[in-house]
């Protein structure tokens, strides 16, 4: 079947009655509705509940507030669809456009962050076995590109294997955590750090007051729990998404929170030399493994659990980011470029152009590293800021509007009287961390290399969003198209 482009390129917006009938595109022929042709997107429902849980667990999704919204509105656009469905009619189109840009930019930069972490594992292992090796900047860049290309090939040609890979990723992560914990505890027997050192000692090398340093330290934890919207973007490829997508979010958070806390506590109990961990050229994780096992082979074997899990995570990030961009492009969120990004390849059944788009931007981010690692780090940090904003926008709307946001929609899962408490805490945390995370990581700031340029990267995204809105969006973006039928498909799948 051929690929159609009309739904993204048609410049005449449909009427309100027409625009709330989308086919969501699961093995359907092109259908004429309201003056435009809906893309016959052919995505298969390959991702079972367990497969999607594996994908989500590898990304450590969170927040029950979004889970409640996703239960009522199981739509692949995620946050920008949620905003459109819950916001007052007067503001829904503009807020949906803004949220869509924040989410798409956040997922694209998050993919770059995952590829960066994955490539750092490779260079760490090489340096570990070859102490005289000093990785040049272009070495790191080549590993980075190799990871990006790898996830691209996986998502294009291995789409049928992705559900199995995600299931394997869930079991691999759990098996890895258990294996690492048991090994470290056994090897460090008799040499544990004291409970006072683990739970009662704060080492602050940032120059900031302890409270501020603690909040800045949440950046890494927040990165681990970012991307909780992953399951919502896979609703067209899973059965019973109105139930499974929010359930995946909640269970993945519970699994991630418990296992990561236990893992961190064990690492702290088993490290032997804190200063050596801080100064380790191979990275702190590999150094802790080595201090505990006192074996290069053993440390490398343990590190393979982390490396493999990270590669699966990168593949999952590529899957979700491409679906996010495909969905937003179908609604003409990227202006004239949308018609090139929205189609799904007729034979491969994947959004190839979206994967090329994400990978291309990832390589651009990598080129920044060749010029300045500071600029590259800003791109990675801004991923959290962008995604936090995309999450908090629908949560704020629900917090303000309450039950009005869900008027006319039945549901079996609800936060009930706890909604304002949960949403309020989510808003407070997101606002606080979004502001704090653009602060310099340490003071005093003695040179440009110690600055945090995340705010600059964020400003660039805002400018691109604003220009696209002025040039095309305010005339042609009308929110999620064919909403009613997509909702029915999501609830009846």
UniProtKB/TrEMBL annotation:
Region (Disordered): 1-20
TM region positions: 100-130, 136-157, 169-192, 212-235, 247-269, 296-320, 350-370, 376-400, 421-439, 451-471
Gene Ontology terms for molecular function: transmembrane transporter activity
InterPro entries in alphabetical order: AA/rel_permease1
Biased amino acid composition, Polar residues: 1-14
Subcellular location(s) of the protein: Membrane
Topology in the lipid bilayer: Multi-pass membrane protein
Cellular component, GO annotation: membrane
Entry keywords, A to Z: Membrane, Transmembrane, Transmembrane helix, Transport
A Pfam family per the record: AA_permease_2
Protein name: Choline transporter
Taxonomic source organism: Apiotrichum porosum
